[in-house]
Recover the amino acids of this structure.
């Protein structure tokens, strides 16, 4: 059991030392420091509350508020700091999915079909089944 915990700690350290993790943290810090992103998020929070109240009261403004929320969300996602953070999170999520696939293969000897394996190693970025990483 101690070896499992030791290896898990080492895996966690390797993940936090990875370029994907570093980029994600840097991008998130950049987004957190972006005043435009903060203003959009604050406005979105206000609109979410207003939308919920409109839905509950049935006053008909819910659709208008929702449309404004969608527009604001689009504008938010187009900000360079937010776009960078979203891409960095996606890359980190892909890394974690690959880690989980390797763990699953090590434990079960199989990679599930819905685990992202197409069955063609020629298009694979690397997994335990193909022996590449």
């Amino acid at each position: 059991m101690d070896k499992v915990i030791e290896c898990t700690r080492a895996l966690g350290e390797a993940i936090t030392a990875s370029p994907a993790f570093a980029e994600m943290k840097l991008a998130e810090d950049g987004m957190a420091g972006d005043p435009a992103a903060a203003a959009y998020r604050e406005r979105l929070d206000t609109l979410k509350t207003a939308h919920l109240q409109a839905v509950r009261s049935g006053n008909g403004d819910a659709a208008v508020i929702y449309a404004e929320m969608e527009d604001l969300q689009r504008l938010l996602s187009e900000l360079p700091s937010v776009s960078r953070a979203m891409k960095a999170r996606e890359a980190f999520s892909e890394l974690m999915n690959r880690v989980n696939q390797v763990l699953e293969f090590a434990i079960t000897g199989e990679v599930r079909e819905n685990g992202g394996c197409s069955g063609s190693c020629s298009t694979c970025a690397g997994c335990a089944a193909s022996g590449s990483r």
Q: What stands out?
A: Confidence is low (pLDDT under 50) at residues 128-133. DSSP finds five helices and no strands in the chain. Residues 2-93 form a domain with the YheA-like fold fold (CATH 1.20.1500.10). The first helix runs from residue 2 to 16.
